[in-house]
Design brief:
Blueprint lengths: L1 H9 L5 E2 L21 E8 L2 E2 L1 H5 L2 H7 L14 E6 L4 E5 L6 E9 L4 E5 L2 E4 L6 E3 L5 E5 L5 E9 L5 H12 L1
Antiparallel strand pairs: 1-2, 2-3, 2-4, 4-11, 5-10, 6-9, 6-11, 7-8, 7-10
Length: 175
């Protein structure tokens, strides 16, 4: 997975701002990060659908994800992406809108000085060591290094939610 991420960066893959201007959603600047090159993403899955062009470039990553209980909420999830945070960048405190799924970070390129705070706990990412959290809790991230930080970010169902409840949530949230 790390090799595929490095190849994407080396080949100049089109990482786009994580916070993009979307006319169908309420317009927020999100702490100056809207359309910012400081926090970018390259999606393998977006809005519940595979991004074929990118997925083809990452066959080992896609194969590994087949074994993961990705949340599947119609056109909302899953989302799977390589998240890139530039040197000196800060993602200010914020919260996700759903607590029926949890966020997984697989750190791939993590220089010293990169951290994630969730609630009152701050952790350093460690390359290859999965970090899982509920993003409905306040969280923020910072790259205090002089190099890019890249993680694979994906969403999975909360394990305590039954299959029947997952189906009900999908119907409810698709409305």
């Amino acid at each position: 997975i790390r090799e595929e991420a490095l190849a994407l960066v080396t080949e100049g893959a089109d990482f786009r701002p994580y916070v993009e201007n979307d006319p169908s959603r309420p317009q927020r600047d999100f702490h100056g990060l809207k359309e910012s090159p400081d926090w970018t993403a390259l999606y393998l899955w977006r809005n519940g659908a595979i991004v074929e062009e990118n997925a083809k470039r990452c066959p080992r990553t896609m194969a590994a994800l087949e074994k993961v209980p990705l949340s599947d909420i119609g056109s909302r999830t899953p989302a799977v992406l390589f998240s890139r945070l530039e040197p000196g960048a800060h993602i200010p405190p914020h919260m996700g809108m759903l607590n029926c799924r949890i966020i997984c970070h697989l750190p791939l390129i993590v220089p010293e000085g990169c951290w994630l705070r969730v609630g009152n706990e701050t952790r350093q990412w460690e390359e290859g060591k999965l970090l899982i959290f509920d993003d409905s809790m306040e969280h923020e991230a910072r790259n205090q290094s002089h190099r890019q930080r890249i993680i694979l970010l994906f969403e999975i169902w909360r394990p305590e939610i039954s299959e029947a409840d997952r189906e009900a949530l999908t119907v409810l949230l698709e409305e």
